[in-house]
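sorry to bug you again but im stuck and you know this stuff better than me. what follows is a protein written twice so to speak, once as letters and once as structure tokens for the fold. mainly i need to know what kind of three dimensional shape the backbone takes. anything you notice is useful, everything is just below:
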Amino acid sequence: MRDAGTEKCVGEVHPAQMGRRRPERPAHPHLHRAGFGDAIQFARYVPMLAERGGKIIVGCRRPMQRLLETVEGIDEMVLQDEALPAFDVHCSMMSLPLLFETTIATIPAKVPYMHADRAASERWQERLLPFEGTLKIGLVWAGLPKHENDRNRSLSLEMLAPLAKVPGHHCSACKKAPHRTRPALHRRE
């Protein structure tokens, strides 16, 4: 459903309704903006959705755009706060497993289903070269502080400090944060 005044998404159609459409008019589902982790996890369903026909429009935050653009089946990206194009059906990305009646045995496992930017990937390979032969662990300890449930899904960086004492690995911060909250890069032999 769209708010005619703002052209922004204001409602959601239950995933079970996505299969109910007039055969002469393909659905144009809009997958609303999910959190970063949700978008990464549930983007695996987009190719399956695309096989059902229609134009797939995905809303996302700007930092996720480059990564989500690599997902097969996405026809159009709408960035946060941009006006939405016309669409027939709106579905949360997190509702796609329900739409496909997913069981543990049917979770889409075709990987990779998204790809890092090649130039960025090469820069990171160079950056991590000094830690070749070591287990590399990426740490993310907090989400958006403005999230209504942030207190239950984020933790302090200090809680991860014991990991730095485990031998044979290298920890890297994968969270964009002010410098004072980034952990030092560790290499333990």
Remarks:
- The helical segments are 36-42, 46-51, 65-68, 96-99, 118-128, 150-153.
- Strands lie at 29-31, 57-60, 76-79, 89-91, 135-139, 169-173, 186-187.
- Confidence is low (pLDDT under 50) at residues 1-16, 19-26, 178-189.
- The chain has two domains: 15-99, 118-187.
